[in-house]
Amino acid sequence: MQTLTEYLTENRVHSAPVIEYVPTGEIYRGVRALYYDLPAKDAAYRIFSYLALPQSPPPQGGYPAVVLLHGGNGMAYYEVARMWAKRGFAAIAPDLNGFCAQSTARRDVPNPNGGPHGYGTNVRGPHPWAYFSVLSAMRAADVLCSLPEVNADKLCSCGLSWGGWLNLLFAAKERRLKAVSIIYSSAYAWQSGWGAVQTASLSPEERLRFEQADPQSCLAEITAPVFFTAGADDQAFSMENRRRTAAALRVPAFYSLRKSFPHANIYGFEEPESALFCSSVLSGRLPSRLQAVCRDGEISVRGARRGDALSLVCTSADPSLLPPPDWDEFPLNGKSVRLPAGCRAYFIAALSKDGTKWSSPLYTV
User: The domain containing residue 110 runs over which residues?
Assistant: First the structure.
């Protein structure tokens, strides 16, 4: 099987993108529906997507921009593009599962030129689904960077669930990205919840191909800071695999881990922390990093901001387990706390005065 680098070398085209806007009946409250061309070695594809620009005038140099990668069983969501436009970003949300929309109610219409179906673990054909989707995400970035209102030097990406898994691959190969947000996801997907269930039905050869396509093979290539948002109760990607993913990076990692965070296609995009992280990086200021220092079982907290409400979130079970184990949360009245007896993993969560949620990395004992 080709590597992702070999596939992109063979198929990546750097011509100006051809954009076909869908007629006016398909404009959703300021969000444009469009197709963009995706030339590849085997065929010429047309990818459906939504594009949204902020309503305010462009700042000097143009709007910052974001490529939005949806989750499994999902599709292009105009709601998510509009959400990020309201936060000041030019946003494109491509469909990565071979669909297009005929109306707000009919979004899962097969797109004959939209590329492979079978999100996530589809490794059939000459290349895995993930390879084609990275190529498609790169072309979506071309679309954003071709717009006169956009600052091509301020490009970010945000992916959710399988889209977050894909975003790790995208970030490893797309050097234009300045900030990367991963919601729910991690590498090592064949060892996590849904990924383990889906790969169980693959043949030994297909399973090997999927493991070779997993982002774990190229995490060290990512050059932009990475932000992880997830709940300890997530059923799809384990806390331990997320920790392993961050440990393999050669760039700073930042976190918004919580005791509970429901796993859903649009819900995860609604939280403001990803956009705040991207804006902070683009302004030239990396966010402060919350850290826990453990000495003889006593935890002290570093990097907390004045007014943060801090808590210790911990478990006495193996954090690699899925379904996830039970986690306990204890408020911190000061900036230090003793780990409960038998604790095997923990993180410090912070609730800021403005309602945003940040955290330390996950630590294992």
Answer: 4-282
159 and 239 co-located in one domain:
yes
**Phi, psi (5° rounding) for residue 236?**
-105, -40
Identify residue 56 by its one-letter amino acid code: S
H or E element: which one contains 192?
none
Between CA 365 and CA 280 the distance in angstroms is: 32
Query: In this structure, what is the dihedral angle of CA atoms 103, 109, 114, 116, given to the nearest 10 degrees?
Result: 140
Last residue within a domain, chosen from 237, 258, 282: 282
SS3 72: coil
CA quadruple 239, 243, 246, 252: dihedral positive or negative?
positive
244-284: per-residue pLDDT in tens? 999 999 999 999 999 999 999 899 999 999 999 999 999 99
Output DSSP code: residue 184. S
Cα–Cα distances in angstroms (integers) from residue 236 to residues 26, 231, 244, 263, 351, in the given order: 34, 10, 15, 8, 25
Task: Write the pLDDT tens digit of every residue in 19-66.
Answer: 999 875 556 667 999 999 999 988 899 999 999 999 999 999 999 999
Q: Are 67 and 155 in contact (CB under 8 A)?
A: yes
Q: In one letter, which amino acid is 324?
A: P
Phi/psi at 53 (5° precision):
-115, 150
Q: Rounded distance, CA 173 to CA 84, Å?
A: 23
**Which are the contacts of 216, defined by CB distance < 8 A and separation ≥ 6?**
187, 188, 245, 248
> Which two three-digit tokens encode residue 102?
């005929």
Q: Say yes or no: 354 and 275 in one domain.
A: no
Tokens of 293: 């220092």
Indicate if 127 and 237 belong to the same structural domain. Answer: yes
Whether 347 and 200 share a structural domain: no
CA distance 313 to 348: 6
Find the CATH number of the domain harbouring 326. 2.60.40
Contact 141, 155 (CB under 8 A): yes
- DSSP designation for 308: -
Whether residues 256 and 346 share a domain: the answer is no
